[in-house]
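User: Hi! Is it possible to get a structure for several chains at once, not just one? Here's what I have:
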Amino acid sequence: MDYHPLPQPDQIETRVKEDAMGAYFMMFATAAMGLPLPILNLVAAIIYYYVNRDKGRFVQFHTLQSLYSQIPVTLLNSGLVVWTIVNFARDLDFFGFYWGYLVMVATANLVYFIFSIVGAVKARKGVFYYFLFFGKLAYHQVYRIRPERDQSTFSNRPPRQ
Amino acid sequence: MQRTILRDLLVLLGVFGLIWLVFSLFSYPEDPQLISIHKEEKLGEVYVDLILLNPVFGEFDNSRVDSAVRVIADRLEEGLEDSEYNYHFVVFDSEMINAFTVPGGNILISTGLLAFCDTPEELAAVIAHEMGHVEERHVVSRLIKELGIEILTSGDQYVIGEVSELLTSTSFDRKQEEEADLFAAKLLETASIEPRSLATLFRKLGRRWTMN
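Assistant: Yes, the chains can be modeled jointly so their relative placement is included. Here is the combined structure:
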């Protein structure tokens, strides 16, 4: 499979770099707002992606990487909120699998936070920074050369009688 | 590329799944097996003495009541299979409708509860329920969870006071109460005592709390 060539840092405009960096920082701004309902920051991430996707592949890569990496973190956080409410409502204890899940979610958020900071700094410098799994997935989505449709196979016809 | 993406996904799932599993299994030493029955009985002796020093739990000395409770308890104990506990029943003078379990198979019953029970079967239901907490080792689990095993077994006087407070003030969680109810229903049936007396008593208690 072929991929589009990657631009080097000196070939990327400053405004483009800032837009790419914004994809990561936007998450932190919305994260606080979305804490009671963690799904809100995911909605903001999707909107940011669709608004900025036409600003070139560099921006598209970073917004997509940020969006993809936020999906599992959001789902994990939502799961934690629901589990906590259920435990309170049913007077269940907070040990065992809940405790393990809590630690796992906290670790995921911490890793996501650190990677996002590094990603934002790298994006500002015009550098590609690949998260585990999400980086390759975003690169594959954005830089893959898709085979162009052969226009000759289509022919316009009048409506049926 | 797709293969490396898939490999990375598996690595991520594996790492985070492992974190979940490890912290779930080794999160907190709340396993009651960490304290032996013998150790629990030793702790129980100290706690019962300390609880009875509290003026709220007044001394009640009536051999007829004690023997009546003992008769019911003996019948229930006959229905227990392979119990490692030597049960001790203490009736204390209080208007509160209350019964609770102290480590080591000690069950404390208030005179208020005895007066509230209309039939011996209702009292048997309460005792069977408390025996359920003992046999399922709920008391030890709760104390380990609240204090940690190192603190619980430290023998420190302040800790002993704290434990006594916990035993008389905090309740079990809903799951533990359901387990104790289930245990009581089975035990009452084994001892040929009408298991419905448990439900009757809880209904009466529910009505009482609603009225209050």
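The two ends of chain A are 44 Å apart (CA to CA). Chain A touches chain B at residues 1, 90-93, 95-97, 99-104, 107-108, 132-133, 136-137, 140 (CB under 8 Å).

User: Great, thank you!
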